[in-house]
Amino acid sequence: MIITTQQAVEIFGVTKKTLSLWVKKGMPKYKHGQYDANLVVRWWADNIYRAEDDNEGVVDAKEKYWQAKARNETVKADLAEEKVMPVEDFKKAWSWRVSEIFGGVLSWSMRLSPLLVGKTDKEIQSIVYSEAWSLCDKFSRAGKFTPAVKIPVKKPVKKPRRKKK
């Protein structure tokens, strides 16, 4: 039998907020605002109802179990919505980026040597700066675990013109 939220509140003698908390703890829902009475009563008997002769340890164990189950479902939802990611994926992605930087820096001696022959100090600085900038740009690129962020560019303040005398 399918019952409404209002009927469930009246049957169990609780508020709508309490019913909502029960749903978060794992109480089965038929669909928005509706519940399967048989499943809800079974869930309530297993998780909420506490008879006088209930062993306190069993009650605590049930409470911990349902809290862990609710936490696990929250983590699954966060993973599905890509709010969080597995630690191993993060480690792999950043290990890859760090190895790119090491490879880039360590290859400078071979890559830059021919480019710097016969150049002036100013030209050498420009070439090295360009290589460093390219490597930094590659490292900081947007990716699955590094979202693109637009950095606001401040416009230079114009100085007021002096009046000619």
Can you describe what's shown?
The chain is mainly α. The protein folds into two domains: 2-80, no CATH class; 87-139, no CATH class. It contains seven helices and two strands. The protein has helices at residues 5-12, 16-24, 37-47, 56-80, 87-106, 108-116, 121-139, and strands at 2-4, 34-36. The chain has a two-stranded antiparallel sheet. Helix 5 runs antiparallel to helix 7 and helix 6 runs antiparallel to helix 7. The protein is elongated.
Helix and strand topology:
Layout: E1 2-4, H1 5-12, H2 16-24, E2 34-36, H3 37-47, H4 56-80, H5 87-106, H6 108-116, H7 121-139
Antiparallel strand pairs: 1-2
Summarize the structure.
With about 160 residues, the chain is mostly helical.
Low-confidence stretches: none
Largest sheet strand order: 1-2
Roughly what fraction of the amino acids lie in strands? under 5%
Rg of Cα set: 32 Å
Count of separate DSSP helical elements: 7
Number of strands: 2
Kindly, what is the distance between the CA atoms of the first and last residues, rounded to a whole number of angstroms? 94 Å
Kindly name the structural category. mainly alpha
Mean pLDDT: 83
Order of helices and strands: EHHEHHHHH
Q: What characteristic shape results from the CA principal axes?
A: elongated
Major beta sheet summary: 2 strands, antiparallel
| Overall number of structural domains | 2
Helix content: 55-70%
